[in-house]
Write a structure and sequence with these properties.
The chain is of the alpha+beta class and 196 residues long. It has one domain. It is built from four helices and five strands; from the N terminus they run αβββββααα. It has helices at 2-49, 128-131, 133-137, 164-192, and strands at residues 61-66, 69-78, 81-92, 97-105, 110-118.
């Protein structure tokens, strides 16, 4: 009985030490992992959407709590004015979930661009949502009104040939992002004042 009690105490101490060490390691590397994701996964889409901005949008960012999560917003300055934000949304495609970045001009409530960041779509077909600049370009300049749909459903988005499910998913992700933007617009406008 005494040996069993010793073993339980030793295991408890080892588990506590290991758990504490793993928690410390996680906390230490969390910021580095986030920076790597920003630079290599989300960064290319953000920089493409905010091409021509006079600042570094990866460095100029802020977070707003949305429900239980915090959402990052990346600021673009054009002509000395910080009136543009880019943020992430998710959608469902043929191969599963994917991420998009949506850029919005807060002054005129228009889309300045979108970019797909992550996906599991079929290479050469659904993956063109990320690689075909013509697909993303059709969202530029659209007002933030109503739902975004593919043309076969009465919408304004030309679907990628052979990738209708992916195209619908991107349109749905843009619709969800617009709803998020609309609900947060007063907070966004206030936060952007700090970047002027």
């Amino acid at each position: 009985m005494r040996e069993m009690l010793k073993m339980i105490i030793v295991l408890t101490v080892l588990c506590s030490f290991s758990g504490g060490l793993l928690a410390a390691l996680r906390n230490e590397t969390m910021e580095k992992i986030e920076n790597q994701q920003l630079e290599f996964v989300k960064g290319p889409a953000i920089r493409n959407i905010l091409k021509g901005s006079s600042n570094d949008p990866i460095a100029d960012r802020f977070k707003i709590k949305v429900g239980e999560t915090e959402k990052s917003f990346f600021v673009g300055k054009f002509d000395g004015k910080a009136e543009t934000v880019v943020f992430e949304s998710t959608g469902k495609g043929f191969g599963g979930d994917f991420g998009i970045m949506l850029g919005v001009n807060v002054a005129d409530d228009k889309i300045i661009g979108i970019g797909v960041t992550t996906h599991s779509e079929t290479p050469g077909i659904g993956s063109r949502a990320q690689t075909d600049p013509r697909f993303a370009a059709q969202f530029k300049g659209l007002p933030l009104a109503g739902d975004f749909k593919v043309k076969s459903e009465g919408g304004q988005v030309d679907a990628i040939s052979g990738a209708t499910v992916t195209s619908k998913g991107v349109a749905g992700a843009v619709t969800d992002a617009v709803k998020t933007y609309t609900s947060l617009k007063p907070q966004l406008a206030e936060k952007l004042k700090g970047f002027k």
